[in-house]
Design goal:
Helix content: under 10%
Number of strands: 16
CATH topology of the largest domain: Jelly Rolls
CATH architecture of the largest domain: Sandwich
Largest sheet: 7 strands, antiparallel
């Protein structure tokens, strides 16, 4: 199949009126295209300008924060909502954390990824539940419950890496969220670990990025 091409020449004044039943496509020196109908009506092919989109984040681009805990965490009593705490961070831009409360400086859509190393020293399987609080209130349908098998032997816990994520909207500037947890046994903890020949392990990571 052969390729066809159309070569157009700019005109400063436009063409003469086309024959009846035809229209002429032409261009002016303003780099715009026009159509002249057989009645002499000239129409620009450039449509109206669309609406201006929302202003994106300034500075280093998207907002993000990566926060973790270097210590073990436990609950005071079974089935007691307890804040998941953080005490360190690796990177942050427009997002910060104090204790376990995460502050989002700018409204928008965000993704939060939570990783926790759960440890069970109890002789029976136990449940652990995590959920979100948004601006101090429980976030609907955010709970994740899982079971951790009984300890391997006396003094040797069964461990499980818990990982989940959320997509949500910070409706206002300076909104906050927290991760809470509870468990069916005080023998269930969130464990940090000292590595031997490998990096140490945090008990919790909370990573937040703007979408």
């Amino acid at each position: 199949m052969s390729n066809a091409s159309i070569r157009m020449k700019q005109s400063a004044t436009g063409p003469s009126t086309p024959p009846s039943g035809y229209s002429t496509l032409w261009a002016k020196t303003d780099d715009e295209f026009y159509v002249t109908s057989d009645t002499g009506v000239v129409t620009s092919l450039t449509g109206p300008q669309g609406p201006t989109g929302p202003t994106g984040p300034s500075g280093a681009g998207k907002y993000f924060g990566s926060f973790y805990s270097r210590v073990d965490q436990s609950v005071a009593a079974i089935n007691t909502p307890t804040l998941v705490a953080t005490d360190s961070y690796t990177l942050a831009n427009g997002i910060s954390a104090i204790g376990g409360r995460v502050y989002i400086d700018n409204k928008g859509y965000y993704k939060a990824v939570i990783n926790a190393l759960a440890s069970n020293l109890d002789g029976n399987a136990q449940d652990i539940t995590f959920w979100l609080k948004y601006n101090g209130s429980d976030y609907p349908y955010s709970a994740h419950t899982m079971s951790i098998a009984a300890r391997k032997s006396a003094g040797v816990p069964t461990e499980r890496l818990v990982s989940f994520e959320f997509l949500g909207q910070a409706v206002n500037d300076n909104d906050t969220f927290e991760v809470y947890w509870q468990t069916t046994s005080t023998a269930v903890t969130l464990q940090s670990k000292t590595g031997s020949g490998i990096p140490n392990s945090a008990s919790v990571w909370i990573n937040v990025t703007q979408l």
